[in-house]
Automatic annotation (TrEMBL):
<keyword id="KW-0378">Hydrolase</keyword>
<dbReference type="GO" id="GO:0016787">
    <property type="term" value="F:hydrolase activity"/>
</dbReference>
<feature type="domain" description="AB hydrolase-1">
    <location>
        <begin position="30"/>
        <end position="274"/>
    </location>
</feature>
<dbReference type="InterPro" id="IPR000073">
    <property type="entry name" value="AB_hydrolase_1"/>
</dbReference>
<protein>
    <submittedName>
        <fullName>Alpha/beta hydrolase</fullName>
    </submittedName>
</protein>
<dbReference type="InterPro" id="IPR029058">
    <property type="entry name" value="AB_hydrolase_fold"/>
</dbReference>
<dbReference type="InterPro" id="IPR000639">
    <property type="entry name" value="Epox_hydrolase-like"/>
</dbReference>
<dbReference type="Pfam" id="PF00561">
    <property type="entry name" value="Abhydrolase_1"/>
</dbReference>
Amino acid sequence: MSVTQETWKHEYMITNGVKLHYVTQGTGTLMLMLHGFPECWYSWRHQIPEFAQHYQVVAVDLRGYNDSDKPQEQSAYVMDELIKDVAGLIKELGHEKCILVGHDWGGAIAWSFAYAYPDMLEKLIILNLPHPAKFIQGLYTPQQLLRSWYIFFFQIPALPELLLQSTDYQAIPNTIQTTAVNKNAFTPDDLNTYRNAAAKPDALTAMLNYYRNIFSHSFFNKSWGVLNVPTLLIWGENDTALGKELTYDTSTYVKDLQVKYIPACGHWVQQEKPELVNQYMRNFLMI
């Protein structure tokens, strides 16, 4: 029997000094889902009911996003704090381990968490975010530097906020819609959900602070070893921000790795091609 949206529960938890909002459904082993920019828990709407048939699925609003707390200090968004949020969530939810799923910034956090706390993971699933070592290598190439122009733009104080909030935050849905290959993946209500989340007080600056700390993150000066956590990397091939070449040779850094490419699909892979993403996840999890 399929699990329906009506049984989703909205909950809050205080961990690592912040109150985090999350949506949960199902019982069993914890499957924790981390979204990216400029989204929120809602980006997992196609995965929550699917996997709640087998797991306790928890899709969290990352700190600074939507209905979670939004600390004002830029230093509150360094990777070490984001990793502590994940560890706290797992423990406070009553689990010792989880299956961790991350997309975009959620993927960056998930990679870093896997290295920091490998014993807290059963499996790792990453969507359209390369291994940190591969991303750093990519920034030394002209093509990826051009794709990553927005990271450098977001370093400017105040101006990105002014542009993103102009015309009633229309840049948020526009960014998602224009970079998606499957334009029909997002209804007007879907896009308004992301716009409304970004428009909440202090959210926009909090969201941008992830980028404003990026060059101080430990993965820029870390020697990455070989990860022993079984890992699935799912990649929409037409990502305008992150080139497919960033996935090549990821097996250098991950002992047990599966890579699944999805053609005719952009960055928003779990929303553009949800059935295929769910199928690859089920096969990887053997359910």
